[in-house]
Amino acid sequence: MISIIKGCNVYVPKCIGVKDVLISDGKIEGIYNELNIQNALLNVEIIDGKNKLLFPGFIDCHVHIIGDGGEGGYNTRTPEIRLSNLI
């Protein structure tokens, strides 16, 4: 599946302006000033990103700062993260 998020404000981490983002198989393949791909020819999903913010890779930085889990016992608990590990 190919998707294009059109006209969103992209931060990487600083703002690089309004861009189009090409996504293929759930991964960002590129960030462009403007993409013009015909939806009918390639079965492309067009997502309106106008007035939206996009932070590529943000979810990859996701952590449980105060820990999480432990439903299966102490060994399955995600420990708290220390500030020194983040900086």
Helix and strand content put the structural class at: mainly beta
Beta-strand percent range? 35-45%
Query: What is the mean predicted local confidence, pLDDT?
Result: 82
Report Rg.
18 Å
Number of domains: 1
**CATH topology category name:** Urease, subunit C, domain 1
- β-strand number: 7
| Number of helices, counting only DSSP H or I runs of 4 residues or more | 2
Word description of this protein:
The protein is mainly β and 87 residues long. The chain has a single domain (2-86), classed as Roll (Urease, subunit C, domain 1). Helix content is 9%, strand content 43%. It contains 2 helices and 7 strands, in the order βββαββββα. It has helices at 39-42, 83-86; strands at 2-11, 15-24, 27-32, 44-48, 53-54, 68-69, 77-78. The strands form 2 sheets. Strands 1, 2, 3, 4 and 5 form a 5-stranded mixed β-sheet that branches. The protein has a two-stranded antiparallel sheet with strand order 6-7. A hairpin with a 2-residue loop joins strand 2 (15-24) and strand 3. The longest helix has 4 residues, at 39-42. It is elongated and about 55 Å long. The termini are far apart. The mean pLDDT is 82.
